[in-house]
Amino acid sequence: MGVSDPQDVNAARVRVWDAPVRLFHWAIVLLIVTSWIAADQGYMRVHLWSGSAMLALLLFRITWGIVGSSTARFGDFVRSPRAAFRYLYSLGRGEKPLHAGHNPAGGWMVVAFLALLTAQVTTGLFSNDGLKFMGPLALLVSADTSDRITSLHGTIFYCLLASIWLHLVAVFFYLLVRRENLVGAMLTGSKPRHLVPEGAAPRFTRAWLAWAILAICAGIAGWVVRSQ
Q1: Which of 52, 86, 125, 188: disulfide with 225, CB 3.0–4.6 Å?
Q2: In the chain, where are the structural domains located?
Q3: Which residues make Cβ contacts (< 8 Å) with residue 161, sequence separation at least 6?
């Protein structure tokens, strides 16, 4: 697997997020909004295709968390619960611990968000709208089971909204208190050097591998949807 050269130590900004991670982030935002509006308005075919796109992206992100760029990998940001509490404690004391990618607490938030999205998409495959629409895999379970999964699908959505709200609170905390623009970093892919640990030089996986993985994941998601 090829990687790009380390960052220039004299640069004013340091690249920390690759394009696949950033595109995943903003595509998921768009798909959540699309799925929400489509379900609310009864556009279930749109809801289905939005959900299938989300499935493809989730499969991609999980894979990219194993073989992708250094800051995208779960091994880079998933730390022990103790490390997350130590990080939060240091913030409470007014300290400013630096991390090139996700901090230990933010890493757990990412894991929780991905888990909720995965549960939401999975339950959607077995759900129904009580009228004409059924998820691609709903016929694999009984009608009663599909109804129960549909109810769970709705409950998980509210948990997902709570997670999004918590994420927004964290974003505004970092912007207003720590003077760190997380949204800007996720748009541009870079952070000011003074917000990155000294000597940090994230390594980035070649873009062709991301496109290859995404194509495979899209094929899997498409096969699931076409099974309806």
Answers
A1: 52
A2: 15-226
A3: none
Span 14-32, average pLDDT? 96
Cα distance between residue 203 and residue 6, in whole Å: 6
CATH classification (class only), 15-226? mainly alpha
**Whole-model pTM above 0.85?**
yes
Q: Residue 18, class by beta-carbon neighbours within 10 Å (0-12 exposed, 13-18 middle, 19+ buried)?
A: buried
Tell me how far apart the alpha carbons of residues 1 and 204 are, in angstroms, rounded to a whole number: 10
Mean predicted confidence (pLDDT) in 3-23:
74
The answer to whether 163 and 116 have CB atoms below 8 angstroms apart is: yes
Q: Which residues pair with 192 in a beta bridge?
A: 13
Q: Which residues of 160-179 are buried (b: 16+ CB within 10 A; e: fewer)?
A: beebeeeeeeeeeebeeeee
- 44 token code pair: 């279930």
Contact, 163 vs 111, CB < 8 A? no
